[in-house]
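Quick check before the chapter quiz. The format below is the same one you will see on the exam, so make sure you can read both the input and the output lines.
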Amino acid sequence: MKITSHRELEVWKEAMDLALEVFALSKSFPAGERFSLSDQIRRSSRSVAANLSEAWRKRRYEAAFVSKLNDSEGEAAETQTHLEIARRCGYLPPEQFQRIDARYETLLARIVTMSSQPEKWVLRAKSPVPPVPTSPLPEA
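Here is the expected output.
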């Protein structure tokens, strides 16, 4: 099956599912975290999928594609850090943290695989059209 949109990527679907799960669980954080941890974890979790979308659209250029994948990887790791802080502060039960963290580890592995094998994802440049032979111009 040929993938024609970032929405068809399993890695993007998982990043979206995780962003929605992180959003839902952050609603239970204390009100005092509303403008700090809650905002930060929501932003970073959303950025994982957003950067995957951008990577998909930049796959004409290998370096740009890999760069956006690296941004996505960084945002996923940032989200893991915020989740760890939430766990250590007692906002997130250890079992829930472990389950979500494991999903982020799997997501990260998929992103790293994509970025280490960009040739499987980047668009191939089309062969240049050979020049049309022309007849010599008559001499004046």
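If your answer matched, good. The chain has four helices and no strands.
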